[in-house]
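Apologies for my clumsy wording, but can you show me some protein sequence, whichever is easiest, together with the matching structure tokens, please?
=====
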Amino acid sequence: MSETPSLLNAALSLAASGVPVLPLRRGKVPFGNCTACADNACGGRPNMRTPGPCRCPGVCHAWAASTTDPAVIVAPLWAAAWRRAVCVGYHPGGAGLTVVDLDDADAIAWARTALPATRTVPTTRGQHWLYRGTMRSVNAVRPGVDIKSTMAYARYLGPGTGTMTNLPDVVRALAVKEPSPARSAPQTGTVLTGLGGGECPHRTPAYLERGIAMAVQRITEASSAIHATVYGTFLAVLSRHGRCGCLTDAHVARLFTAAQGQGETARHCTDAWTNARTTLGL
């Protein structure tokens, strides 16, 4: 691929500046685990909390595969991944950064009134706001807004513009805990998904399918904080598709199955889904 040299050079340059990097494949997601690392059979990387290689020399374990070691970045298995990669990813927390990912114009308008100015990087649909400092990563802290810092990855889209400022308390405060189970939460696994009734106004049906697949992957690849990951993933799905009526019971069943595969009960899945709907006012 013609992009490989530029992607590899960008990755090496970032690594030299202390930013842990990894290749991202189509869909802007990490490469899947190899056979030896499937289902964390290898034991994962150190506590899955710090980047760096496990015994496998491949690009496994998503964000935890990120590295600043040039020998790893150009190693044969990584070189093969770079040939298939579409962009460079990095671990913000490993670089001492927090990314506020603003996914649309409404999110950007909110940030301009609610958050301190800092360095900004344009994205496909919105902006990344970069702050100096780390915190836990949380998806869908409000519509169109994700926080990417520790134990997460972000796309590298350039150095950005503006002066980077320290991570403010107002951003830390966005990482709220899941609310207590709603009183109206159903006691069975039945979930009603008819929230809108029209076609999804955001993208084609393939966009929804890709979103559900990524949500399932996010749950199944989580190695800690499963409860919070499940809730955050449900919140992210509903924030995108909860009002347009395109979610079906089959979609929800895939999410619930992934969560139960990580040890969650059917009751917790139902409560987490109901709480996410309540949080979003659905």
About this structure: Confidence is low (pLDDT under 50) at residues 182-199. The chain is about 35% helix and 15% strand. The first strand starts at residue 21 and ends at 25. The two ends are 45 Å apart (CA to CA).
